[in-house]
């Protein structure tokens, strides 16, 4: 019996080649797009789930409020927090402190820069599942100046060729020419889906036992530390979080310690990657909004493909009416007819799945390059989707597609009354016509919404790229600091001499250094105020140490007073007393115009300073963040990067000359550089990726919708062949015929536009709210999306309509 169903289904597919091709093509594109998106979603949702304790690990976040306003929303907090929580709450069974380390690792003559690691408590090794290849995870990081290397780093430093790393254990390496570290373990490289990614792990106790940095041990004043805690299985973290307000009052007495109200929160480890809107982030982050949007788009695309099948199958019900009538007269039951048409649906979906898998294999490499990941169908099928088996899920999706796209047409066709059909008295029901119209509206509503979304993302990113930042980032080269040089009384003079020498190089215009460059986080100070009034409000400000050339290098506008000069700098912190404010600070302190602040004293960093200048506000970070108060200090550091404004003509020769000078003044250091505009724009990487993926898969949705519209217009033309012939004989022009065949579809597209517009506005306006500086969604976006949809629909329909209009009317009138 089933063999007969398949044979009949195959014959029907061959008989209606064009309609079959349209159905298979639409489903193939839909399934292929769905599989690609599922790969991306599967990878993003898998972050940190390799940890055996993942469901019980949380990171501590810290919000600070000053004068009732949130002034810091960060992942950093005090070194004592983890231990204090474990002491205060029996629900906390373990904790680990984490602090980033960026150093140059040295083994003899071999130096490796650009390495990132973490200083961690030994408990980190038991809380997290980073497997050691060799070494004892129970005590590998219990002693100061001990280090664990990743497999890749160990191979690079010691030229290990095989899998035996035992010979590396016990050897000593240097970090930034400091005290030597003893290698006590080798661990496997951190998985790509780990939000904490590192090349090495240092013993955290090194900070306070060797460096004598006492605040790193147990302290409630210095907030430059990161904490992860482990709860007892089954603990409700929200219930524990509710106790943290009392914890804050107990340890901080309101705002007596930090000058701000402290609020501590717990973020599940599973959310650290996708749900981070925090400052001072040390992990790899992405956007949950992008991930869930892609999953929704995948569902919408496959839905459009199924709608195509239902539309075309029910539209052809008139042609198959006599077939059904004959089958019923011959004794076929309704159940047998339903099975027959479901078999056809199964065959089409199966063929579409096979083609989709081939399409995915063909486009996998470009897709991986787009998302900057190494994904594959094998990865998807092996890792699943947040605990769900993807093979089973895919079978379920195809099964659902077969049922949804096959059951209704089968039900409609099997319901024909054979006597009326065989007498030629069957007419398509108005319900079927209304359903097809509703499905076309649904398809194009989804399509129009996706087009609107793509235009909004494009417009926002264009706005971001064109917006004035208050600084000039173009042609600025950043040279990483000379980390291997110790700060001493000669450092400032050497740094100044290097800058003067670099300016003598052709194509080098200006040179400056600073603690932080645009795009990077800056530190904060929480006691900004006007001196002399104990009751005066205290405010929070950002801070940066800069050289005199910093303001001209970045074309920052000086509003009042003067820039720093060499006399403002001193190797002794106590002898520095001049500062420059940005305009935001002057407004905060109540000065009506910038000039009023010049010559005044302000309190910051625990003492009074003289204001010598005021600069215009500028965007240190992306336009997702508002402008903040900023204080510039005349300070140098061995960790200050050089900002070099260059002419990019003959850049290779220029870079060689810069390297020569750098090596001359700071021998033994690694010369490493990058262009600032590229680095700054990385802040928008998730948004740019979102825009690209949104646009590409919206195009897929448009393609599938057009295939469906093409099939329906082809069917409508065939159904009205004789009518077209009559109209032509009576004098109808080609344009009249095209309008006749097109107007109903265009009307449906316009209805889809009306439905889609408010939905798209709501969703995209919500996305734009993540930006402190954003576009307003203007009417032209909706007009452009509507016109695009109409033009696409017209282009799809017109080919068949024009062909029908140009046909010989005599042949049309002979059509039975």
Automatic annotation (TrEMBL):
Please report the stretch or stretches of sequence annotated as the ABC3 transporter permease C-terminal domain: 296-408, 696-805
Which regions span the lipid bilayer? 21-41, 290-312, 346-367, 387-416, 437-458, 693-718, 745-763, 775-797
Q: Which residues form the MacB-like periplasmic core domain?
A: 20-246, 445-659
Instruction: Supply one GO molecular-function term.
Output: transmembrane transporter activity
- Tell me the superkingdom of the source: Bacteria
Topology versus the membrane: Multi-pass membrane protein
One GO CC term on file? plasma membrane
Compartment(s) of residence: Cell membrane
Question: Which InterPro entries has this protein been placed in?
Answer: ABC3_permease_C, MacB_PCD, Macrolide_Exporter_MacB
Record's signal peptide: none
What keywords would UniProt list here?
Answer: Cell membrane, Membrane, Transmembrane, Transmembrane helix
Q: Which family does it belong to?
A: Belongs to the ABC-4 integral membrane protein family.
PANTHER family found in the cross-reference section: ABC TRANSPORTER PERMEASE YTRF, MEMBRANE COMPONENT OF TRANSPORTER-RELATED
Q: What is the name of this protein?
A: ABC transporter permease
The organism that produces this protein has a lineage beginning with:
Bacteria, Pseudomonadati, Bacteroidota, Chitinophagia, Chitinophagales
